[in-house]
UniProtKB/TrEMBL annotation:
Organism field: Streptomyces levis
Domain DUF418 intervals: 225-384
PANTHER family: INNER MEMBRANE PROTEIN
Keywords on record: Membrane, Transmembrane, Transmembrane helix
Protein name per its UniProtKB record: DUF418 domain-containing protein
TM stretches of this protein: 18-36, 56-78, 98-115, 121-139, 146-168, 203-224, 245-265, 271-298, 318-337, 343-362
Protein's UniProt keywords contain Flavoprotein: no
Lineage per the UniProt record: Bacteria, Bacillati, Actinomycetota, Actinomycetes, Kitasatosporales
Length: 401
């Protein structure tokens, strides 16, 4: 998530950090819903949802689910090109550094999944990121074609399976017993929380395989974009950004609406898997639209304000990602308030927005005194196999390009 080969105040791209900081919002909104609702965690509609809660979960499903992990993965691939340049400039081994970094991500992800949230992404990045190491010399055009084929075939297969499921017209039974057991475990004690997470660990590892096509495709697109320096100042013109944003909204929004209608209503449950397929196939378009709209804002008269808002959070992305899980799990489980299954979707959404606002403020305050966050420092130490040099804290909250 951070660039472990670089001092915190040198050779950073504000656009990369701003996009990463913005993506944290979508990640938090989606993850907090699953951390606080057994129905969301199991993939079923909450039968007790109020109209306000139904609208909230519908909007989260349409606008955030399956979109922001793709943006995060794209930025991971882009950052890999920066890390490669850094290692080569310093005379270090790209392979050795990245292998140590991948191991660090796997270890952090394992701890995250066991102690906090089982829907971890770090293990997926640590394991699947090895493909970037293998493909680091691939031509940008080849990387784009490979990503399109990989994700396209995956999406078409999901749509085909969803169409078959919708034609069968069989409803999946609601796992009431599993939901009741999860509620008891997460409201029980710290020990039952960890035990429940350990029981779910095989599903976490299986999720890595299910996410692999989307993550790898986004990695490859990020790799291609990094090789072309598209997020460097002047990398993409405003006209191209506007065209891409318009096309992304035109393709992505209808797919997102159908996905939400199938997952949360008014369509019947038998349309759920087809909705997942359509939502998956069109999610990259909406992710690209989000990214382009933010890049347009960065290149507008409000650009400095947008950078000050999002860049600090993006520079502390790993710390903020882990911190989100810590805060929400303290609200949800026996670690703190034991509100798992007790809050409606609207309240959960408000909580997520409040946590994100707090992280934006704390990230800015932190970077006024320190060069990088605690989790970033640890990952950098693992990557470099030694104590990182002291980074100079920049005077302004946004890093220099």
């Amino acid at each position: 998530m951070d660039d472990p080969g670089e001092p915190a105040d040198r050779r950073r791209l504000p656009a990369v950090d701003a996009l990463r900081g913005f993506a944290l919002l979508g990640i938090l909104v989606v993850n907090s819903a699953q951390m606080l609702s057994p129905w969301e965690a199991e993939g079923f509609r909450d039968p007790g949802a109020t109209p306000v809660d139904h609208v909230a979960v519908w909007l989260v499903t349409a606008l955030a689910s399956s979109k922001f992990y793709l943006l995060f993965s794209f930025l991971f691939g882009y950052s890999f090109t920066l890390q490669t340049v850094s290692a080569e400039r310093d005379g270090g081994s790209v392979t050795a550094r990245f292998l140590r970094r991948s191991l660090g991500l796997v270890l952090l992800g394992l701890a995250h999944a066991v102690l906090l949230y089982t829907g971890d992404i770090l293990m997926a990045y640590g394991l699947l990121g090895l493909v970037l190491l293998w493909a680091r010399r691939i031509a940008p055009a080849t990387a784009v074609k490979a990503a399109a084929w990989l994700y396209g075939v995956f999406g078409v297969v999901l749509v085909a399976l969803g169409a078959l499921t919708a034609a069968v017209d069989e409803e999946e039974p609601v796992p009431h017993r599993a939901i009741a057991e999860a509620v008891a475990a997460y409201r029980g004690t710290a020990g039952t929380v960890v035990r429940e997470n350990l029981d779910r660990l095989p599903l976490t590892l299986a999720a890595v395989l299910l996410m692999a096509p989307g993550v790898l495709a986004a990695f490859l697109l990020g790799l291609a974009a990094g090789k072309r320096r598209l997020l460097a100042p002047g990398g993409v013109g405003r006209a191209r950004l506007r065209r891409t944003a318009a096309a992304g909204l035109a393709v992505g929004l209808p797919g997102a609406v159908f996905f939400a209608c199938a997952a949360q209503g008014p369509l019947e449950d038998r349309w759920h898997l087809l909705g997942v397929g359509v939502g998956t196939l069109t999610a990259p378009a909406l992710s690209a639209a989000y990214a382009c709209l933010l890049l347009l804002l960065l290149d507008s008269p409000r650009g400095d304000r947008v950078r000050r808002l999002f860049v600090p959070a993006g520079r502390l992305a790993l710390t903020n990602y882990l911190g989100q899980s810590l805060v929400v799990m303290c609200v949800a489980t026996a670690y703190g308030l034991s509100l798992y299954g007790r809050l409606g979707a609207a309240a959960v959404l408000l909580l997520a927005l409040a946590v994100y606002a707090l992280q934006l403020a704390l990230s800015t305050a932190w970077l006024r005194r320190f060069g990088h966050g605690p989790a970033e420092w640890l990952l950098r130490a693992l990557t470099l196999a030694g104590r990182p040099g002291r980074a100079r804290a920049p005077r302004a909250p946004e890093p220099a390009s």
